[in-house]
């Protein structure tokens, strides 16, 4: 193994001076110029590029297979892709085994932990998604058993291996994802990046299967509505089902896909952070055990729950109505847009209030190196592009279309709001993540010297006479902000006889003590509200509510092929954006 | 302007304590919670996200127009896109004017310069490309004059504005691109990112026009070869040319496109670095005036020139042959692949030797923050993906194809080598850019104390008796490494009576004096060779040598639509990769 030592023909720098002089033969001296070592001091940047390029190429091999599969005339069949995926998963399982065994043996193998990576709620969420993926594997096995006679064995082996892979991967994530690897760096890098890109490929595979399913449904709807020049791809294998459950399995699969897709993309993000951490020294401060305070949470959860409930109603109504006549389809699409506009308006408002609160209390941002946070910000920014592109296309289509459907301008408004909402939400989340943490402890510590500086500025006797007010403010920190406005007149009267103090300095301090708590409460409500709204906006497209296919406006401007390609590429990004926002907003909620 | 101060309704933190207490009215006190300022302390990260999102959306608006244009049934016409581009360019010109005027008035406007950004050779290269872009604008105006009666005025206005834009932009780049802006940060950020994305849009526009031109040529060739179910898009406007020069202009344009495309993408990269630099404190060391030494450059330039010359021969032969019969097309494609394999083999070899040299002399890498270098590395990595995808698709196509064309396995070999070559070249360039600079001064400075430590370790008289040897080594630094092997025996005899010295220590030192120079010479030759090879590999696809369209293998596996889409997306990335490698290799050449 290249990792373990130095290639035999080469000399280490250290031994060089003595060995060169003590050995008299000339040949060895000529070799001296080739003192090459691939070990300890192999530069980190190179190892990063080396393994990163490997990972990208892995992804591209898989992508080329998927592209070939999407062309009907190709000699590439599904089993080829599945075989590739199976072998990649097996390789990953082997590497994880090696890692666990190695770590068990060697105590100095991992010296540090990155406490920011893979928080417990994230790992919990992943386990839940993994569980649903396992159910999906069971469905797939059931489906294979029914059609065994005419399906390739790869279709049967794949879910088995996938289940093993899922279980071992979740185990790995629970116990090792926080590790900051410092030995065997290059080999570890290859292993982790292999895992990242294997999961990305599984994500791509899921996304493409789901897109196919949606396109088929869409085409069938168009056929029902009278379009004839469309061929629907055959979904069922060409033999009879030997059990009675095949249709249940294939129907159930389509509802489980979204969870499986989110599972794989989340795992690859978490593992990518682990990869970035290899060989790093964590310079940022560790998360203190933040206590999740939930007092004062009223408006956010209530409004959010209303949003979530109405979303489910809209989803059910939409799915029922859209398959019917052209008229009821129109009303379904209109309903969706109206609902979306209201929802997005509230989300924009919440995000703007959050940003205004941040502006009113300019805490310096924390620019220390933190791969996990940087990735969060980059992903929010990057995946928003998908839905921005769709929205701009919709806007252009509405402007340029000749026929005027009823929901034309509502579509315009909706698309514009999607763009603005993502713009504001990104700003809000990213600033929240980068703000230096304000724990209530910090507030207290910082305010104490300020109070004493006041006493020093005036006279000690004056200060002690106001101790009562200050202490009350301290003890009732949470209540003060509520009682502040009613107390204001009393306070003003109290100040009237102390003109020797710097003007208003005490009123400032009491406010500073009180404010963070009020601010924080509003921010927490906003985070919860946005959290639930983002879940809602994930549910809708994930379970079949895609008016982009059903309104027909964009197809008139971009043509069927281009528009379905745009939606097929942009929709998974949009779904991931929503899920990632949900995860990030949970972080925001913990932090503020 | 938000930039210039504080919004009127809001209070600054500083003034707050006094103003709140001195004003007795209650309303103002309630406002106190809204002390919002958008000025000085507006966090840098937010300004980055704010302007970055603006830029991305600008690009997406343009992209959606381009996508609509590519569908024939759309109501969007070319003049709409041109109008957008014209207004964006005008906006950028206005901003640049503001910047120049502002900088002229205020001396403290820009306090720092980033010496690594926009090196003079880069600016020189850009000016050259800009000059060709200006010629292209002249051609476009000529073309418009010919077809004036049936073309939209936008087609005539566009080249005029583009010419003004080009001139003012080159002026801006020459005198201001190194600026590290520290005041008006947020406004400046918007201006610079607007410029970045305007240029990216102009790049996209150029790429799409070029792709259309290529596809039309390709279709016409297919028609000539007997394929009938293909419709060729009409390139000519629907009226007669009023001058005699229209066909010259339209023909000339197709040869000038590649330069215009490279011009815009390079400008956006350079401006992006400027954007990244805003508000930064440059922590990395400034470039000393590196003297470009050219002694010892023999093998690299000679081999590179041979490669370049043969490339031009191959290009001419290919273009002549490929339009002929099916047989001569086959021989043209085979010739291209054979030539490519030889070329890429040599490039792989050169890159590997470079990497081995780096491994034999592990200099620590420089990880200090340097936006320009980080972007270079990211771009090399990111743009390589395009051609990797094409290559993997080709490999898959060759493996899975049923019919066996003569050049099937040569295509396989070629594609594999493309992947490996980019892999190695990226490693080589990125490591070169990250290595701490070894100037010859450093070598000398470092060696002197080592020599004296030897004298101290033994006796002074011994050391002085070897002054002759050491001084000679100093004076003939460049010659020593050549004469070292022949002198070895003499030296050994010389040492034989000085056993009191540590074994071989002097032979080590003389070697250390000599080695960097020898290593550096080999590295310089490699850099020059790769530089010329990358130019060659840029020329071929830029001027019409695209066997991906002409071999027919991939179309059989992926279908015409998917494959042309892949090539259309991946080819501009590949072209940019080659040009960017050329620029980076020039940097490598200066550094090693």
Automatic annotation (TrEMBL), chains A, B:
Keyword Lipid metabolism annotated: no
Show the InterPro entries listed in the entry: Otopetrin
Q: Does the keyword Transit peptide apply?
A: no
A molecular-function term among this protein's GO annotations = proton channel activity
Listed A to Z, the keywords are: Cell membrane, Hydrogen ion transport, Ion channel, Ion transport, Membrane, Transmembrane, Transmembrane helix, Transport
Query: What's an example GO cellular component term for this entry?
Result: plasma membrane
This protein's major location comes to: membrane
Any matching Pfam family: Otopetrin
Give TM regions.
54-74, 80-101, 121-143, 155-175, 187-208, 255-275, 296-320, 332-358, 379-400, 406-424, 522-540, 560-577
What is the membrane topology noted in the UniProt record heading this document? Answer: Multi-pass membrane protein
**Where's it found, cell-wise?**
Cell membrane
One example of a Gene Ontology biological process annotation: inner ear morphogenesis
Q: Per the similarity annotation, which family is this? A: Belongs to the otopetrin family.
**What's the protein called, per UniProt?**
Otopetrin-1
Upper taxonomic lineage: Eukaryota, Metazoa, Chordata, Craniata, Vertebrata
